[in-house]
Fold this sequence. Notes:
The chain is of the alpha+beta class. The chain has 3 domains: 2-97, Rossmann fold; 106-121 and 190-292, D-amino Acid Aminotransferase, Chain A, domain 1 (2-Layer Sandwich); 125-187, 2-Layer Sandwich (Dna Ligase, domain 1), CATH 3.30.1490.20. Helices cover 32% and strands 28% of the residues. The protein contains 9 helices and 16 strands. The chain has helices at residues 13-24, 78-90, 99-106, 108-117, 134-140, 165-177, 235-248, 276-282, 286-298, and strands at residues 2-6, 28-32, 37-40, 47-52, 60-63, 68-71, 94-95, 125-126, 146-150, 159-162, 182-186, 194-201, 204-212, 227-230, 252-260, 263-270. It has a 5-stranded antiparallel sheet with strand order 14-13-12-15-16, with helices on both faces. The chain has a 4-stranded parallel sheet with strand order 2-1-6-7, with helices on both faces. β12 (194-201) and β13 form a beta hairpin. It is globular.
Amino acid sequence: MKIGILSRKASLYSTSRLMEAAQERGHDVRVVNYLRCYMDITAERPSVIYQDLVADRNATEEELQFDAVIPRIGASYTYYGTAVVRQFEMMGTFSAGQSDGITQARDKLRSMQLLSRAGVGLPTTTFAHSTRHTKGLIDRVGGPPVVVKLLEGTQGVGVVLAETRKAAESVIGAFRQLDANILVQEYIKEAGGEDLRAIVVGKKVVAAMVRRAAPGDFRSNLHQGGTAEGIELTTEERRTAIRAAATMGLSVAGVDMLRAERGPVVIEVNSSPGLEGVEGATGVDVAGKVIEFIERRVGTG
Length: 301
């Protein structure tokens, strides 16, 4: 089978692991920088053209043909990256991460709205344009402490815990002065600085870990100094993760959850979950699980 990994760097851990897993199973795999692609949107014969700019000014061009693609689209290039994924879908190429699902998951507000409609457990969340609604934003989530999140933030950046009403008002006011879109969420105190990440492939949770915040921080992201170890999820947690991924329209996803007294609540669905942390914590060959899923869906070619 010919598999394309849409990633800006072949040296990234997740990209290299996916490539290694595909090669181990005898597939013809290639890493393609999606920013070097352009699209020919032609009736009945859409195509994606890759331009090799490494060599010299006489860059070579080729039309890309794959049986399947694995999108690893960076947050900064969501719009163009998903356009490339969508073009492959128009060509009949199977994608391990659907373009609509990637777009929906990257929009934190839209993802929360979709999960809410589907009945997936969530932290109480508020959103507004004007600082005039600050009191309502805070009161609706149960009052301080509250979590203030930038809609455009990733890997724990732009997430602030405001422990008092005055602090919350100051943070919200500062973000709005910068014309930044924010969410205000209830603080799940009982989570104790821990969250769960479940990796969903197809309709199964293939690996899960608990992440713990570094001392003095409430964010459990590994990029922020958190630690992780493998964990066995409860039946309810597994069902919640699978339902959240399906609601986003994603076949491969990382679902982040908190353990609240009322049950698991989803805080984010990641369309391109990193593999290094979860493979290291669990010992599970997650990259291999993704390739096996593609084989089941597309066949061995």
